[in-house]
Design a protein that fits this description.
four-stranded mixed beta sheet, six-stranded mixed beta sheet, alpha/beta, Nitrilase/N-carbamoyl-D-aminoacid amidohydrolase
Length: about 260
Amino acid sequence: GAQVVIMPESAIPKDFRFIYKSLADVALSKDITIIAGVIMDTEDGKGTYNSVLAIYPDGSVSERYDKRHIVPFGEYIPYREFLESVLPFVGELNLGDFTTIQGDDTVIFKVDGIKNGSMICFDSIFDVLARNSVNDGAELLTVVTNDSWFRDSVGIAQHLNHSVLRAIENRRYIIRAANTGISAYITPKGDIISKTAPLVEDIIYCEVFAIQNRTLYTITGNIILVLAGLFYVFIIGLKLIKKPWRRKCDADGKIV
């Protein structure tokens, strides 16, 4: 009786427009909403967006969310134009697919009546992105990720833990879909109710609820930590200013 199906990052490895009809047919025949990690080519064909969107049972498509923190040297080369101008041979190298374009905006779309805020892979490491989504109205957070490069190393567990932190910080349910694991259902208190094993084909069923309340952390972010740090520096500086300067003397009482 699932009403929503969430597919991971890289679930559809080619431009979404080529696969839309098939997904729309499934959504219609099963009367479900499909959230999928998709690739969208730019109009000029020179770049791609790593994106998430929802396909509804009536065939309509939600607004597209584009990944906001793309991976350096994984999805793009930092300062590529500068490097190619200084080192022309760089432009002639076959460096693979480093043409992903970074998204700029938070995108909230409804899923079965609940306002969803999405994060893609590397996004989930940055607390500010989850906070922005919740501040823009997200009642649920979803994370789609491709962790295949970690295989079954400790890296996939560490990456999962970032989603746990995002759930606690913002008091939101998080549904995490990972193509090679670890997919997970995380409560607003950070409890992992269910999860998949690495490199195992599996499905998680869960029930989530919309939450509208915002936490103090969601509203203020790290401002309390910054203020505490500034206060500490102020106290230390005050003590140094008030501390009398003492000079050392030798055995005869002469200043050295």
